[in-house]
Protein backbone atom coordinates (compact mmCIF):
# COMPACT_ATOMS: atom_id res chain seq x y z
CA UNK A 1 0.00 0.00 0.00
CA UNK A 2 1.41 3.37 -1.02
CA UNK A 3 1.36 5.62 2.03
CA UNK A 4 1.52 8.77 -0.21
CA UNK A 5 -2.05 7.92 -1.37
CA UNK A 6 -3.45 7.89 2.17
CA UNK A 7 -5.65 10.98 2.71
CA UNK A 8 -7.14 12.45 5.77
CA UNK A 9 -10.93 12.72 6.04
CA UNK A 10 -10.71 16.45 5.58
CA UNK A 11 -8.51 16.11 2.54
CA UNK A 12 -10.79 13.53 1.07
CA UNK A 13 -13.87 15.68 1.64
CA UNK A 14 -12.10 18.67 0.14
CA UNK A 15 -11.08 16.57 -2.84
CA UNK A 16 -14.65 15.44 -3.36
CA UNK A 17 -15.81 19.02 -2.98
CA UNK A 18 -13.43 20.18 -5.68
CA UNK A 19 -14.57 17.39 -7.93
CA UNK A 20 -18.19 18.32 -7.49
CA UNK A 21 -17.62 22.08 -7.81
CA UNK A 22 -15.62 21.43 -10.97
CA UNK A 23 -18.55 19.71 -12.64
CA UNK A 24 -20.44 22.48 -14.47
CA UNK A 25 -23.54 20.32 -14.71
CA UNK A 26 -23.81 20.18 -10.93
CA UNK A 27 -23.12 23.91 -10.49
CA UNK A 28 -26.28 25.06 -12.24
CA UNK A 29 -29.07 22.58 -11.82
CA UNK A 30 -32.83 22.79 -11.36
CA UNK A 31 -34.41 20.37 -8.92
CA UNK A 32 -38.10 19.60 -8.37
CA UNK A 33 -39.13 18.37 -4.97
CA UNK A 34 -41.18 18.85 -1.81
CA UNK A 35 -39.87 20.83 1.15
CA UNK A 36 -39.53 19.01 4.46
CA UNK A 37 -37.71 19.62 7.73
CA UNK A 38 -37.89 23.33 6.95
CA UNK A 39 -36.04 25.63 9.39
CA UNK A 40 -35.75 29.41 9.03
CA UNK A 41 -32.74 30.17 11.22
CA UNK A 42 -32.42 33.45 13.17
CA UNK A 43 -29.43 34.25 10.95
CA UNK A 44 -31.85 34.36 8.00
CA UNK A 45 -30.59 31.17 6.33
CA UNK A 46 -33.12 28.49 5.36
CA UNK A 47 -32.33 24.83 5.98
CA UNK A 48 -34.59 22.17 4.50
CA UNK A 49 -34.71 18.86 2.67
CA UNK A 50 -36.01 18.42 -0.85
CA UNK A 51 -37.57 15.05 -1.34
CA UNK A 52 -39.60 13.03 -3.74
CA UNK A 53 -41.06 9.56 -3.47
CA UNK A 54 -37.71 7.81 -3.69
CA UNK A 55 -34.96 10.09 -2.46
CA UNK A 56 -33.93 13.09 -0.36
CA UNK A 57 -31.55 16.00 -0.87
CA UNK A 58 -30.23 18.10 1.98
CA UNK A 59 -30.50 21.77 0.95
CA UNK A 60 -29.66 25.24 2.17
CA UNK A 61 -30.62 28.72 0.94
CA UNK A 62 -28.62 31.57 2.41
CA UNK A 63 -30.27 34.79 3.58
CA UNK A 64 -28.71 36.81 0.79
CA UNK A 65 -30.77 34.75 -1.69
CA UNK A 66 -33.99 34.04 0.20
CA UNK A 67 -34.63 37.74 0.96
CA UNK A 68 -35.70 38.15 -2.66
CA UNK A 69 -38.16 35.28 -2.60
CA UNK A 70 -41.61 36.48 -3.64
CA UNK A 71 -43.26 33.80 -1.48
CA UNK A 72 -42.66 32.22 1.91
CA UNK A 73 -41.56 28.58 1.71
CA UNK A 74 -43.12 26.22 4.19
CA UNK A 75 -43.41 22.54 5.02
CA UNK A 76 -44.91 20.49 2.20
CA UNK A 77 -44.53 23.15 -0.51
CA UNK A 78 -43.55 21.71 -3.86
CA UNK A 79 -40.90 23.88 -5.45
CA UNK A 80 -38.50 24.21 -8.33
CA UNK A 81 -35.09 25.08 -6.92
CA UNK A 82 -32.01 26.24 -8.76
CA UNK A 83 -28.53 25.98 -7.31
CA UNK A 84 -25.30 24.07 -7.08
CA UNK A 85 -24.00 20.88 -5.44
CA UNK A 86 -21.12 21.05 -3.00
CA UNK A 87 -19.79 19.30 0.13
CA UNK A 88 -19.95 20.49 3.69
CA UNK A 89 -16.47 19.43 4.71
CA UNK A 90 -17.02 19.12 8.43
CA UNK A 91 -19.83 16.55 8.09
CA UNK A 92 -18.74 15.11 4.82
CA UNK A 93 -22.21 15.57 3.36
CA UNK A 94 -22.97 16.94 -0.02
CA UNK A 95 -25.70 19.61 -0.08
CA UNK A 96 -27.75 21.53 -2.57
CA UNK A 97 -27.02 25.26 -2.27
CA UNK A 98 -30.16 26.97 -3.59
CA UNK A 99 -30.00 30.47 -5.05
CA UNK A 100 -33.42 30.58 -6.75
CA UNK A 101 -36.69 28.96 -5.88
CA UNK A 102 -40.28 29.17 -7.07
CA UNK A 103 -43.42 27.20 -6.36
CA UNK A 104 -43.99 24.20 -8.55
CA UNK A 105 -47.38 24.02 -10.26
CA UNK A 106 -48.49 27.65 -9.46
CA UNK A 107 -46.88 30.92 -10.46
CA UNK A 108 -44.61 32.37 -7.82
CA UNK A 109 -45.89 35.88 -8.43
CA UNK A 110 -49.46 34.77 -8.01
CA UNK A 111 -48.56 32.94 -4.82
CA UNK A 112 -46.68 35.96 -3.51
CA UNK A 113 -49.65 38.15 -4.46
CA UNK A 114 -52.07 35.97 -2.51
CA UNK A 115 -49.78 35.74 0.51
CA UNK A 116 -49.23 39.49 0.69
CA UNK A 117 -52.92 40.17 0.11
CA UNK A 118 -53.87 37.86 2.96
CA UNK A 119 -51.25 39.38 5.26
CA UNK A 120 -52.27 43.00 4.62
CA UNK A 121 -55.95 42.17 4.86
CA UNK A 122 -55.40 40.60 8.28
CA UNK A 123 -53.55 43.78 9.37
CA UNK A 124 -56.56 45.87 8.35
CA UNK A 125 -55.00 47.77 5.42
CA UNK A 126 -58.07 47.03 3.28
CA UNK A 127 -60.58 48.03 5.95
CA UNK A 128 -63.32 50.31 4.52
CA UNK A 129 -63.45 52.23 7.81
CA UNK A 130 -59.90 53.51 7.21
CA UNK A 131 -60.49 54.81 3.72
CA UNK A 132 -60.52 58.57 3.31
CA UNK A 133 -63.14 60.43 1.24
CA UNK A 134 -62.12 62.11 -2.01
CA UNK A 135 -62.66 65.90 -1.83
CA UNK A 136 -65.39 67.13 -4.16
CA UNK A 137 -63.57 70.21 -5.40
CA UNK A 138 -59.79 69.66 -5.13
CA UNK A 139 -57.53 72.61 -5.75
CA UNK A 140 -54.50 70.51 -6.68
CA UNK A 141 -54.09 66.93 -7.82
CA UNK A 142 -50.86 64.98 -7.60
CA UNK A 143 -50.16 62.37 -10.27
CA UNK A 144 -47.64 59.65 -9.41
CA UNK A 145 -46.84 57.78 -12.63
CA UNK A 146 -44.40 57.50 -15.45
CA UNK A 147 -43.93 60.85 -17.22
CA UNK A 148 -43.62 59.17 -20.60
CA UNK A 149 -46.50 56.70 -20.48
CA UNK A 150 -49.92 56.93 -22.02
CA UNK A 151 -51.49 56.98 -18.58
CA UNK A 152 -50.18 60.43 -17.67
CA UNK A 153 -51.37 61.77 -21.01
CA UNK A 154 -54.87 60.38 -20.48
CA UNK A 155 -54.98 61.76 -16.94
CA UNK A 156 -53.87 65.26 -18.00
CA UNK A 157 -56.31 65.41 -20.90
CA UNK A 158 -59.18 64.27 -18.74
CA UNK A 159 -58.40 66.65 -15.87
CA UNK A 160 -58.03 69.68 -18.16
CA UNK A 161 -61.17 68.80 -20.02
CA UNK A 162 -63.31 68.23 -16.97
CA UNK A 163 -61.86 70.70 -14.46
CA UNK A 164 -59.38 73.11 -16.08
CA UNK A 165 -58.93 75.27 -12.97
CA UNK A 166 -57.29 72.48 -10.96
CA UNK A 167 -53.52 72.51 -10.44
CA UNK A 168 -51.77 69.33 -11.53
CA UNK A 169 -48.53 68.24 -9.86
CA UNK A 170 -46.78 65.37 -11.65
CA UNK A 171 -44.28 63.34 -9.69
CA UNK A 172 -42.43 61.13 -12.21
CA UNK A 173 -41.61 57.61 -11.05
CA UNK A 174 -40.59 54.23 -12.38
CA UNK A 175 -43.65 52.05 -12.81
CA UNK A 176 -41.96 48.76 -13.69
CA UNK A 177 -38.69 47.00 -13.22
CA UNK A 178 -36.17 47.09 -10.44
CA UNK A 179 -36.54 50.05 -8.12
CA UNK A 180 -40.05 50.88 -9.30
CA UNK A 181 -41.73 50.02 -6.01
CA UNK A 182 -39.39 52.14 -3.90
CA UNK A 183 -39.70 54.97 -6.45
CA UNK A 184 -43.49 54.93 -6.13
CA UNK A 185 -43.36 54.72 -2.31
CA UNK A 186 -40.92 57.64 -2.07
CA UNK A 187 -43.08 59.72 -4.40
CA UNK A 188 -46.15 59.17 -2.22
CA UNK A 189 -44.19 60.08 0.89
CA UNK A 190 -42.80 63.22 -0.80
CA UNK A 191 -46.27 64.36 -1.88
CA UNK A 192 -47.51 63.94 1.69
CA UNK A 193 -44.49 65.75 3.06
CA UNK A 194 -45.02 68.76 0.77
CA UNK A 195 -48.79 68.77 1.32
CA UNK A 196 -49.54 70.63 -1.90
CA UNK A 197 -52.06 68.16 -3.36
CA UNK A 198 -55.59 67.46 -2.16
CA UNK A 199 -55.77 64.04 -3.82
CA UNK A 200 -53.25 61.69 -5.43
CA UNK A 201 -53.62 59.52 -8.53
CA UNK A 202 -51.18 56.62 -8.41
CA UNK A 203 -51.05 54.31 -11.39
CA UNK A 204 -49.92 53.37 -14.81
CA UNK A 205 -51.23 51.89 -18.05
CA UNK A 206 -51.89 48.25 -18.74
CA UNK A 207 -49.29 45.52 -18.87
CA UNK A 208 -48.45 42.00 -17.85
CA UNK A 209 -48.44 40.82 -14.29
CA UNK A 210 -44.69 41.23 -14.14
CA UNK A 211 -44.94 44.78 -15.50
CA UNK A 212 -47.59 45.70 -12.96
CA UNK A 213 -45.79 43.94 -10.14
CA UNK A 214 -44.40 47.12 -8.55
CA UNK A 215 -47.95 47.94 -7.45
CA UNK A 216 -48.12 44.57 -5.69
CA UNK A 217 -45.09 45.28 -3.55
CA UNK A 218 -45.58 45.65 0.19
CA UNK A 219 -43.64 48.91 0.37
CA UNK A 220 -46.10 50.55 -2.05
CA UNK A 221 -49.10 49.18 -0.16
CA UNK A 222 -47.84 50.53 3.17
CA UNK A 223 -46.99 53.96 1.74
CA UNK A 224 -50.52 54.21 0.31
CA UNK A 225 -52.00 53.20 3.65
CA UNK A 226 -49.85 55.75 5.53
CA UNK A 227 -50.75 58.60 3.17
CA UNK A 228 -52.72 61.47 4.72
CA UNK A 229 -53.79 62.55 1.25
CA UNK A 230 -56.59 60.44 -0.29
CA UNK A 231 -55.29 58.20 -3.05
CA UNK A 232 -56.96 57.01 -6.24
CA UNK A 233 -55.33 53.89 -7.67
CA UNK A 234 -55.35 53.52 -11.45
CA UNK A 235 -53.27 50.50 -12.43
CA UNK A 236 -53.68 48.76 -15.77
CA UNK A 237 -57.08 47.95 -17.16
CA UNK A 238 -60.42 47.21 -15.55
CA UNK A 239 -59.57 43.51 -15.19
CA UNK A 240 -56.23 44.15 -13.50
CA UNK A 241 -56.29 44.08 -9.72
CA UNK A 242 -53.21 44.91 -7.67
CA UNK A 243 -52.49 45.19 -3.96
CA UNK A 244 -52.42 48.96 -4.42
CA UNK A 245 -56.04 48.84 -5.59
CA UNK A 246 -57.14 47.14 -2.37
CA UNK A 247 -55.25 49.57 -0.12
CA UNK A 248 -56.14 52.77 -2.00
CA UNK A 249 -59.06 54.88 -0.82
CA UNK A 250 -60.74 54.52 -4.24
CA UNK A 251 -59.90 52.11 -7.05
CA UNK A 252 -60.35 53.33 -10.61
CA UNK A 253 -60.55 50.90 -13.50
CA UNK A 254 -58.22 52.98 -15.67
CA UNK A 255 -56.14 56.17 -15.36
CA UNK A 256 -58.82 58.03 -17.32
CA UNK A 257 -61.46 56.78 -14.90
CA UNK A 258 -59.28 57.93 -12.01
CA UNK A 259 -59.14 61.44 -13.43
CA UNK A 260 -62.92 61.42 -13.85
CA UNK A 261 -63.36 60.33 -10.22
CA UNK A 262 -60.88 62.93 -8.96
CA UNK A 263 -62.63 66.03 -10.28
CA UNK A 264 -66.16 66.99 -11.24
CA UNK A 265 -67.03 67.97 -14.80
CA UNK A 266 -67.12 71.69 -15.31
CA UNK A 267 -70.15 71.45 -17.59
CA UNK A 268 -72.03 69.53 -14.93
CA UNK A 269 -71.05 72.14 -12.39
CA UNK A 270 -72.22 74.91 -14.67
CA UNK A 271 -75.52 73.12 -15.20
CA UNK A 272 -75.89 72.60 -11.47
CA UNK A 273 -74.97 76.23 -10.87
CA UNK A 274 -77.55 77.37 -13.42
CA UNK A 275 -80.15 75.06 -11.92
CA UNK A 276 -79.43 76.26 -8.38
CA UNK A 277 -79.35 79.92 -9.46
CA UNK A 278 -82.73 79.50 -11.18
CA UNK A 279 -84.06 77.74 -8.15
CA UNK A 280 -82.65 80.43 -5.88
CA UNK A 281 -84.14 83.18 -8.04
CA UNK A 282 -87.55 81.52 -8.00
CA UNK A 283 -87.29 81.05 -4.29
CA UNK A 284 -86.33 84.67 -3.73
CA UNK A 285 -89.17 85.91 -5.93
CA UNK A 286 -91.62 83.70 -4.09
CA UNK A 287 -90.27 84.89 -0.78
CA UNK A 288 -90.46 88.50 -1.94
CA UNK A 289 -94.07 88.02 -3.01
CA UNK A 290 -94.93 86.46 0.33
CA UNK A 291 -93.28 89.33 2.19
CA UNK A 292 -95.03 91.88 0.03
CA UNK A 293 -98.39 90.24 0.63
CA UNK A 294 -97.72 90.15 4.33
CA UNK A 295 -96.76 93.84 4.26
CA UNK A 296 -100.02 94.67 2.55
CA UNK A 297 -101.95 92.70 5.16
CA UNK A 298 -100.14 94.57 7.88
CA UNK A 299 -100.88 97.90 6.26
CA UNK A 300 -104.56 96.99 6.22
CA UNK A 301 -104.58 95.77 9.77
CA UNK A 302 -106.48 97.83 12.42
CA UNK A 303 -103.31 98.20 14.36
CA UNK A 304 -101.68 100.32 11.74
CA UNK A 305 -104.91 101.92 10.55
CA UNK A 306 -105.86 103.33 13.97
CA UNK A 307 -103.04 102.71 16.42
CA UNK A 308 -104.58 104.96 19.16
CA UNK A 309 -107.59 102.69 19.38
CA UNK A 310 -105.33 99.85 20.22
CA UNK A 311 -104.03 101.84 23.16
CA UNK A 312 -107.43 102.72 24.67
CA UNK A 313 -108.17 99.43 26.33
CA UNK A 314 -104.65 99.00 27.66
CA UNK A 315 -104.83 102.58 29.00
CA UNK A 316 -108.09 101.83 30.84
CA UNK A 317 -106.67 98.67 32.15
CA UNK A 318 -103.59 100.58 33.29
CA UNK A 319 -105.79 103.07 35.18
CA UNK A 320 -107.70 100.29 36.93
CA UNK A 321 -104.54 98.58 37.85
CA UNK A 322 -103.08 101.85 39.16
CA UNK A 323 -106.14 102.39 41.38
CA UNK A 324 -106.00 98.87 42.65
CA UNK A 325 -102.35 99.27 43.34
CA UNK A 326 -102.84 102.50 45.33
CA UNK A 327 -105.73 101.00 47.31
CA UNK A 328 -103.71 97.96 48.21
CA UNK A 329 -100.72 100.11 49.10
CA UNK A 330 -102.82 102.27 51.46
CA UNK A 331 -104.47 99.21 53.00
CA UNK A 332 -101.12 97.62 53.54
CA UNK A 333 -99.72 100.88 54.98
CA UNK A 334 -102.58 101.15 57.52
CA UNK A 335 -102.19 97.56 58.54
CA UNK A 336 -98.49 98.12 58.97
CA UNK A 337 -99.10 101.27 61.08
CA UNK A 338 -101.51 99.45 63.36
CA UNK A 339 -99.18 96.60 63.72
CA UNK A 340 -96.35 98.97 64.57
CA UNK A 341 -98.47 100.70 67.25
CA UNK A 342 -99.30 97.35 68.84
CA UNK A 343 -95.72 96.38 68.84
CA UNK A 344 -94.70 99.71 70.42
CA UNK A 345 -97.36 99.24 73.08
CA UNK A 346 -96.07 95.80 73.86
CA UNK A 347 -92.58 97.07 73.83
CA UNK A 348 -93.30 99.94 76.18
CA UNK A 349 -94.20 97.43 78.93
CA UNK A 350 -90.61 96.38 78.82
CA UNK A 351 -89.22 99.93 78.52
CA UNK A 352 -86.28 100.35 80.98
CA UNK A 353 -87.15 104.01 81.68
CA UNK A 354 -90.66 103.13 82.81
CA UNK A 355 -89.26 100.28 84.87
CA UNK A 356 -86.83 102.69 86.60
CA UNK A 357 -89.57 105.28 87.23
CA UNK A 358 -91.85 102.65 88.74
CA UNK A 359 -89.05 101.34 90.98
CA UNK A 360 -88.18 104.84 92.10
CA UNK A 361 -91.80 105.45 93.09
CA UNK A 362 -91.78 102.26 95.11
CA UNK A 363 -88.56 103.32 96.84
CA UNK A 364 -90.00 106.73 97.76
CA UNK A 365 -93.14 105.14 99.17
CA UNK A 366 -91.04 102.72 101.22
CA UNK A 367 -88.88 105.62 102.49
CA UNK A 368 -91.94 107.55 103.63
CA UNK A 369 -93.37 104.49 105.34
CA UNK A 370 -90.02 103.80 107.00
CA UNK A 371 -89.71 107.45 108.29
CA UNK A 372 -93.21 107.33 109.66
CA UNK A 373 -92.47 104.05 111.40
CA UNK A 374 -89.21 105.45 112.80
CA UNK A 375 -90.97 108.57 114.05
CA UNK A 376 -93.66 106.47 115.72
CA UNK A 377 -91.00 104.26 117.28
CA UNK A 378 -89.00 107.32 118.46
CA UNK A 379 -92.05 108.92 120.00
CA UNK A 380 -92.96 105.67 121.74
CA UNK A 381 -89.39 105.31 122.99
CA UNK A 382 -89.33 108.88 124.19
CA UNK A 383 -92.60 108.35 126.05
CA UNK A 384 -91.35 105.14 127.56
CA UNK A 385 -88.06 106.86 128.51
CA UNK A 386 -89.91 109.75 130.14
CA UNK A 387 -92.03 107.37 132.13
CA UNK A 388 -89.02 105.40 133.18
CA UNK A 389 -87.16 108.61 134.08
CA UNK A 390 -90.02 109.70 136.16
CA UNK A 391 -90.12 106.36 137.88
CA UNK A 392 -86.37 106.42 138.32
CA UNK A 393 -86.39 109.93 139.55
CA UNK A 394 -89.02 108.99 142.06
CA UNK A 395 -86.77 106.23 143.31
CA UNK A 396 -83.57 108.36 143.26
CA UNK A 397 -81.73 108.66 146.59
CA UNK A 398 -81.28 112.31 145.82
CA UNK A 399 -85.00 112.77 145.93
CA UNK A 400 -85.07 110.97 149.24
CA UNK A 401 -82.18 113.08 150.42
CA UNK A 402 -84.10 116.21 149.41
CA UNK A 403 -86.67 115.14 151.82
CA UNK A 404 -84.02 115.35 154.60
CA UNK A 405 -82.27 112.05 154.27
CA UNK A 406 -78.51 111.63 153.74
CA UNK A 407 -76.07 108.85 152.99
CA UNK A 408 -73.35 107.75 155.39
CA UNK A 409 -70.11 106.20 154.10
CA UNK A 410 -66.99 105.02 155.77
CA UNK A 411 -64.00 107.15 155.85
CA UNK A 412 -62.86 106.12 152.47
CA UNK A 413 -66.41 106.24 150.96
CA UNK A 414 -66.05 102.64 149.89
CA UNK A 415 -68.97 101.22 151.65
CA UNK A 416 -72.34 102.52 152.76
CA UNK A 417 -72.97 102.44 156.53
CA UNK A 418 -76.49 101.51 157.12
CA UNK A 419 -76.09 100.09 160.61
CA UNK A 420 -74.52 101.31 163.78
CA UNK A 421 -72.91 98.01 164.05
CA UNK A 422 -70.53 98.94 161.23
CA UNK A 423 -68.95 101.84 163.08
CA UNK A 424 -67.13 102.32 166.28
CA UNK A 425 -66.87 105.40 168.40
CA UNK A 426 -64.05 107.46 167.23
CA UNK A 427 -64.40 106.45 163.54
CA UNK A 428 -64.55 109.08 160.87
CA UNK A 429 -67.48 108.84 158.59
CA UNK A 430 -68.58 110.73 155.53
CA UNK A 431 -72.07 112.04 155.26
CA UNK A 432 -73.36 112.93 151.84
CA UNK A 433 -76.01 115.55 151.66
CA UNK A 434 -77.98 116.78 148.72
CA UNK A 435 -75.78 119.85 148.44
CA UNK A 436 -72.45 118.58 149.85
CA UNK A 437 -70.50 116.26 152.16
CA UNK A 438 -69.75 116.18 155.79
CA UNK A 439 -66.88 114.54 157.63
CA UNK A 440 -68.02 113.49 161.02
CA UNK A 441 -66.46 111.91 164.00
CA UNK A 442 -68.48 109.28 165.85
CA UNK A 443 -68.63 110.15 169.37
CA UNK A 444 -71.27 107.83 170.57
CA UNK A 445 -73.71 105.30 169.22
CA UNK A 446 -77.21 104.53 170.24
CA UNK A 447 -79.02 101.49 169.17
CA UNK A 448 -82.68 101.84 168.37
CA UNK A 449 -83.08 98.95 170.67
CA UNK A 450 -81.88 101.46 173.55
CA UNK A 451 -78.68 99.69 174.01
CA UNK A 452 -75.88 102.31 174.77
CA UNK A 453 -72.39 101.67 173.65
UniProtKB/TrEMBL annotation:
It is found in: Cytoplasm. One of its GO terms (molecular function) is exodeoxyribonuclease VII activity. Its EC number is 3.1.11.6. Keywords: Cytoplasm, Exonuclease, Hydrolase, Nuclease. It is an enzyme of class 3 (hydrolase). InterPro entries: Exonuc_VII_L, Exonuc_VII_lsu_C, OB-fold_nuc-bd_dom. Residues 125-440 form the Exonuclease VII large subunit C-terminal domain. It catalyses: Exonucleolytic cleavage in either 5'- to 3'- or 3'- to 5'-direction to yield nucleoside 5'-phosphates. Residues 7-102 form the OB-fold nucleic acid binding domain. Transmembrane segments: none annotated. Pfam families: Exonuc_VII_L (PF02601), tRNA_anti_2 (PF13742). It comes from the Bacteria. GO terms for cellular component: cytoplasm; exodeoxyribonuclease VII complex. GO terms for biological process: DNA catabolic process. The keyword Cytoplasm applies. Belongs to the XseA family. Bidirectionally degrades single-stranded DNA into large acid-insoluble oligonucleotides, which are then degraded further into small acid-soluble oligonucleotides. Heterooligomer composed of large and small subunits. This is Exodeoxyribonuclease 7 large subunit. It comes from Paenibacillus aurantius. The lineage of its organism: Bacteria, Bacillati, Bacillota, Bacilli, Bacillales.
Amino acid sequence: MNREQVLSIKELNRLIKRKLEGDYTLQDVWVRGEISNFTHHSSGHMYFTLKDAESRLKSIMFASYNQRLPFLPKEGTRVLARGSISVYERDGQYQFYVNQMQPDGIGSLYLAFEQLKKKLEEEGLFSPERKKPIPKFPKAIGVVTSPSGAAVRDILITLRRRYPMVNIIIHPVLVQGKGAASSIAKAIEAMNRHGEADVLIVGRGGGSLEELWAFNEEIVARSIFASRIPILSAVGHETDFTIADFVADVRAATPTAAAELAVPHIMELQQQLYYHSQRLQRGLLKKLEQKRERLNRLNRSPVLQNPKRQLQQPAQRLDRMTEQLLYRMRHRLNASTQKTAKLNQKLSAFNPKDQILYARRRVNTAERQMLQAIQVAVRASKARLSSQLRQLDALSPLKVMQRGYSLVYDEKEKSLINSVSKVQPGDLIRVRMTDGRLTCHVWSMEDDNNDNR
